[in-house]
Amino acid sequence: MNDQLPFPPLPEPLSELMRRYEVRDYVIDERVWRVVDTASTAGTDLCPLVMLPGALGSHLVFYRQWKHLDLYQPARRVILVDYPGSSDLTRMAAAFEELMRLLKVERAIFAGSSLGACWLQVFTSSIAPSMVQRTEHLLIGNAFVDAEPLQLNPLFVRSLVNDKPADELKKKFSGFIEAMPDGELRSAQICFARVQTAEQLSGRLRMVANVGAIPLSKVAQERMTVLTCDDDGVTTKDIGNLVCAAYPKARHVSFESGGHYPHVNQAARYNELLGEILALPI
After folding, report:
1. Which domains are delineated in the chain?
2. The model's pTM
3. CA angle 252, 211, 58 (to 5 degrees)
């Protein structure tokens, strides 16, 4: 991140999350997975919530979901996962399964945003059939099933993502964050950009630019929820319609607003949806 960019005050739930829980690194297949796990305060939870963020930023972006559950479901174990920058579907799926084993997660509710939602589809596809059995419910938000339409977005074009050095690419995205409207999302993303390495960001963006159509989840669609936002400028309404078409029997939820980050921009509505999913019988 540009060191000259003023560091804005952080949202209090984000500050509290960072104070209360350490980030632990798990090195699996020579790649680093970073995890925040509330098991120390939640106790034994037979069905934790596991959340994966999009390409830009951090797993800590789910701070308002953590705080909501900390207040209303303190026994719910929440696991926030920051994944490596990679495009190797098979190795990443195997590594994620190993991470779940190390965390002693036998069954979980999985929720992902954007690229995190893409990865969760891969992790519960035919590539990793045992992960399908671990999935109580799958929430994919602001997702895609084919990354090719994202080539219309200048931030993801291959001529930028594949050809520019990682440091230069990060500067480009730092400018994108700097141009965000003042507010909570911008403040949080500035914080995350200070921590996210250029290599991790570059690797994630190469995945988006080059993956094309992804393997679809094999989770029973009755146990899936697809969330879209009408004003999402990244995974647009047309892209969201493709996701819904890929999972016609899943529950389809659309927010009129929320952009690409409804878990921040429409946190109350997102938390309400999450609460409905968590209340489903196991």
Report:
1. 12-150+215-278 (3.40.50.1820)
2. 0.95
3. 70
